[in-house]
Design brief:
about 220 residues, alpha/beta, five-stranded parallel β-sheet, 5 helices, elongated, DUF1707_SHOCT-like, DUF1707 domain-containing protein
Length: about 220
């Protein structure tokens, strides 16, 4: 009786990555962009590649030229992936009367964001935000204002559970996305909006002047 042939150890770079692996690399890329090491165009390209990665060999080059993340070796990627997970708040409550709410740039997203806004609009830009876990819940109660959500590739927004009175939900985020692109994070919108709309769109590519001047860093949630 012949014994089974031992399986040859696979190259670690050929191992499949998980959603958490992709999220960790995406977070590292957003931090690098916030430090000015990547332009917005470069960030968009690398995020798209990260969310479409299948193996560690696909992810490693995305961090190779960033200081502190190694020289492109798989060990550098492993160091990044072994970093402690982002500690986000469970719930953040925001209340505004006659004013708008804007979260953009580099910010840490809570697991649940409660928004009570009267007479103003809300902008939630997830392009360079850091998320923890696979889902973010946004519960809105708005009067006379609209909710705008900007999401990078790999993010999906479910706005079917929000009650609309006098407005609509327009999702433009998946317009140019590949049909088989993996979803790495979901945003679920609930609550009620009166006299306003929900607009979901991908990030706008910066023009030359905007790339030269850069964008100011966003603020952290209080």
């Amino acid at each position: 009786m012949s014994l089974p042939t031992p399986m040859e150890p696979r190259d670690p770079k050929e191992m499949r990555v998980s959603h958490e692996d992709r999220d960790r690399v995406a977070d590292a890329l957003r931090v690098a962009a916030g430090d000015g090491r990547l332009t917005m165009d470069e960030l968009d390209e690398r995020l798209e590649a990260a969310f479409g990665a299948r193996t560690y060999a696909d992810l490693a080059p995305l961090l190779g030229d960033l200081p502190g993340l190694g020289s492109g070796a798989l060990a550098a990627l492993g160091q990044s992936l072994s970093a402690p997970p982002v500690q986000s708040k469970d719930v953040v409550h925001v209340k505004r009367v006659g004013g708008s709410v804007r979260y953009e740039g580099v910010w840490i997203v809570p697991k649940r964001l409660d928004l009570d806004v009267r007479g103003g609009s809300v902008l939630l830009d997830f392009t360079r935000a850091t998320v923890a876990g696979g889902t973010t819940e946004v519960n809105v109660h708005m009067r006379g204002g609209s909710l705008r959500i900007v999401v990078p590739p790999g993010y999906a927004v479910d706005g079917n559970e929000v009650s609309m009175h006098g407005g609509s939900v327009r999702d433009r985020s998946a317009k140019d996305a590949p049909p088989d692109a993996p979803i790495v994070h979901r945003i679920i919108v609930t609550g009620e909006i009166v006299g306003g709309s929900v607009v979901i769109r991908p990030p706008r590519r910066p023009g030359r002047l905007r790339r030269m001047l850069g964008r100011s860093a966003g603020h952290a949630l209080e």
